[in-house]
Amino acid sequence: MPDRRNINIPRIEIVGITALPEIENGAELGLMIVMAAIGQDTSLEDGDILVVTQKVISKAEGRIVDLRTVTPSERGLKLSIETERDPRLVELILRESKSLIKIDSERGIIIAETHHGFICANAGIDQSNVAGEHMVSLLPKDPDGSARRIREEVAQVLGVRVAVIISDTFGRAWREGQVNFAIGVSGIDPILDYRGSLDKQGSVLKTTSIAIADELVAAGEMVMGKAEGIPVALIRGYRYQPSAGGVAYLLRDPASDLFR
Amino acid sequence: MPDRRNINIPRIEIVGITALPEIENGAELGLMIVMAAIGQDTSLEDGDILVVTQKVISKAEGRIVDLRTVTPSERGLKLSIETERDPRLVELILRESKSLIKIDSERGIIIAETHHGFICANAGIDQSNVAGEHMVSLLPKDPDGSARRIREEVAQVLGVRVAVIISDTFGRAWREGQVNFAIGVSGIDPILDYRGSLDKQGSVLKTTSIAIADELVAAGEMVMGKAEGIPVALIRGYRYQPSAGGVAYLLRDPASDLFR
């Protein structure tokens, strides 16, 4: 679109970083993203935001498990019978969970709270885009750390400051369809705080805070897709306040949560 | 970013449409959006997606209410005392609701299900960005219709087929911060159905459906902001299957909803 000179018109670009090789355990993802971007004539710039899908993080961090190596506990066996799910998968769900939020035995649905505090189906364990029919991916152990390492690698290689958000796809209460959620955040404040700001009419805004990290990873979906397997989205042009980050800011204190 | 020739690299642009005048009851929004876009050297194209914030729709459709004209019912009075909220506002919340989902008397929070089926605080009634301290905006009566009318106006004026999604900002269960949700959809399928698709490894994807309309309006937030009052985002470059739309596809059947 023309008129790139007018700086008062907010304008964002989102580009899929397509040329990443298959990710192995121990991969230096930051470096690989930089190389893949260069391979498509894009060099990262200060202020860019990288949205990285959980799956490649889990692969790079060895969080892929062969179900055949998992021995279910008694509790796992019991829940697997109740839900008619694979007992080894159910065992992993229990190991990855702080608590179980809802179980629908009839439909075999297990909604769990992970040790990080994410509430999602199967504690985020997933079989898609993982090679081998017995292989599943677990969520990264410390997704903020995963994001920070990518950011640091990019800074080291290019001398450029980016923000990195790790994304996974979860369902929601009340609404159909899944959307991307931020599960790790580094280099950007995940919450945009409007408390005390004035609206166009000069009234104080009632809306206090926007979960901008969740909106950024949702935007990334447009270039990532599920079936295409494009693992990284580059968002350029969104102005934000650099900050340490931390996904915990996005998690509601259970004591003030009306829905669990 | 360079390399615009490579069509295999997905690339999206999001632009804020900034130059809309203050919206009055009866405004022809589609026409006004076309004019505002032209005013910033952007002409709409086939396949563009317009994200339009609820507030301007409500203004154009006369869904602004002066609280001083509202007489609370007995039920409204009772709930207003329980929650320590303005009885006239509480009365409007009740009128706009099909059911009340949760009430937190201590914090004065009312989560309601609107007649459309949206679950949100205060049935979507809001005082920000509305002129006058007694004035509040209600959600549009038929947001799919609102979206369709804008789409038709754009087609009439420019001969161009766009999709239109009406957006509002709601809180979520379990997570802090609000995000944009689609409340009206025309010209695009709000759900992206991956059932039966294969992943990169050739396995059938377990993730069945993505609420792409919700992700598109979330992406719009980057150029709209809350305080700036930019009411329209133009998303270009996202390929989708044109369809009638309809927000009902995004609403989970209460019978299969685990969280109410």
Task: Describe, in plain words, how this protein is organized in 3D.
The structure is a homodimer of 260-residue chains. Chain A has 260 residues and is α+β, with helices and mostly antiparallel strands. Chain A has 2 domains: 13-63 and 140-251, 2-Layer Sandwich (60s Ribosomal Protein L30, Chain: A), CATH 3.30.1330; 65-135, CofE-like domain (CofE-like fold). Helices cover 25% and strands 23% of the residues of chain A. Chain A is built from 6 helices and 12 strands. The first copy, chain A, has helices spanning 29-39, 54-60, 74-83, 87-95, 143-158, 212-224, and strands at 11-17, 49-53, 64-66, 97-104, 109-114, 119-121, 135-137, 163-170, 179-186, 192-193, 209-210, 232-236. A 5-stranded mixed β-sheet of chain A has the order 1-12-2-8-9. The mean pLDDT of chain A is 92.
**Main sheet properties of chain A:** 5 strands, mixed
Low-confidence stretches of chain A: none
Kindly name the structural category of chain A.
alpha+beta
The CATH fourth-level homologous superfamily of the largest domain in chain A: CofE-like
CATH architecture of the largest domain in chain A: 2-Layer Sandwich
Order of helices and strands of chain A: EHEHEHHEEEEHEEEEHE
Mean pLDDT of chain A: 92
CATH class of the largest domain in chain A: Alpha Beta
Biggest chain-to-chain interface with counts: A-B, 84 and 84 residues
Q: Give the overall shape of chain A, derived from the CA principal axes.
A: globular
Oligomer: homodimer
Give the strand order of the largest sheet of chain A, numbering strands 1, 2, ... along the chain: 1-12-2-8-9
Strand content of chain A: 15-25%
